[in-house]
């Protein structure tokens, strides 16, 4: 769910075949870690972002990671995918 929130929060929904990955994990200290990645279809390029927050701030964490992905160029990779 956090992964989906990240994409929607940044207004960066993927195309039908967009290689987008997200992984959320509750760490031993009770904080949530979210890692997001967007790839080109051939896997030659990847944009990564990661963040940590209190578990109760999961939506805000999703927004933070999504915005970082967009700043790092994920939109261009997503726009390059055709259905």
Automatic annotation (TrEMBL):
Residue ranges constituting the Porphobilinogen deaminase C-terminal domain according to the UniProt record: 14-70
Pfam families: Porphobil_deamC
Annotated organism of origin: Actinomadura rugatobispora
Identification of the protein by name: Porphobilinogen deaminase C-terminal domain-containing protein
InterPro entries with a match to the protein in the record: Porphobilinogen_deaminase_C, Porphobilinogen_deaminase_C_sf
């Amino acid at each position: 769910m956090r992964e989906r929130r990240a994409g929607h929060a940044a207004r960066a929904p993927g195309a039908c075949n967009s290689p987008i990955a997200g992984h959320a994990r509750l760490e031993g200290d009770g904080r949530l870690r979210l890692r997001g990645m967007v790839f080109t279809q051939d896997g030659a390029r990847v944009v990564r972002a990661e963040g940590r927050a209190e578990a109760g701030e999961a939506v805000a964490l999703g927004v933070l990671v999504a915005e970082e992905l967009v700043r790092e160029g994920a939109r261009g990779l997503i726009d390059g995918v055709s259905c």
